[in-house]
Amino acid sequence: MRHGKFLCLPFSFTSREEPVSLGQVLLWKKAFFARATGIRSLGFLYGAKLNRANLRYATLFRANLSEADLSEADLRETDLRGAVLRRTNLHTTNFQGANLEGADLSGIPWLLVMEMTLQPGVKLKAIRWEVEHEEKTTGRPGAS
Questions:
Q1: Of the candidates 100, 82, 43, which has an alpha carbon nearest to the alpha carbon of residue 90?
Q2: pLDDT digits (tens, 9 = 90+) for 68-102
């Protein structure tokens, strides 16, 4: 069933009962294929629109999620080891029990990274974090 740019599917990919975007369906298909074939990473998801997506227990090992929108997403118990999350929107994302060891969090506001450490069970060992150029010179992200 089609609704504009969205598809309605018999399963719930998001945490709410809403139509899912085609991008979310393709991610679900990639995850299913990866699990069925033993592939360890979903790879390149640069700029993906995954706000409010339910990715609980997903294996996103070494995935490139740079500049993706993961706001309000459920990433509980997700394997994000070595993932690239540069400039990703992580506003109110649930990371409880997620493994982010070796992940690249460059461009993520430091206060948001600190909030991640307060969520139960989050593993942030050996993460990479670099200040964006604007933050270095002004002390504030996006300030001129």
A1: 100
A2: 999 999 999 999 999 999 999 999 999 999 999 99
Kindly report the backbone phi and psi dihedral angles of residue 3, in degrees, each rounded to the nearest multiple of 5, phi listed first. -135, 90
DSSP-H helix ranges across 1-144: 22-37, 110-117, 133-138
Measure the CA–CA gap between 144 and 141, rounded to whole angstroms.
Answer: 9
Which pair of structure tokens corresponds to residue 36?
A: 């069925």
Contact 132, 113 (CB under 8 A): no
Cα separation of 133 and 144, whole Å? 11
Of 50, 66, 53, the residue nearest 106 (C-alpha) = 66
Q: Does pTM surpass 0.70?
A: no
| Eight-state DSSP code of residue 51 | T
Query: How far from chain centre, in Å, is Cα 76?
Result: 11
Q: Rounded to whole angstroms, how far apart are CA atoms 131 and 53?
A: 27
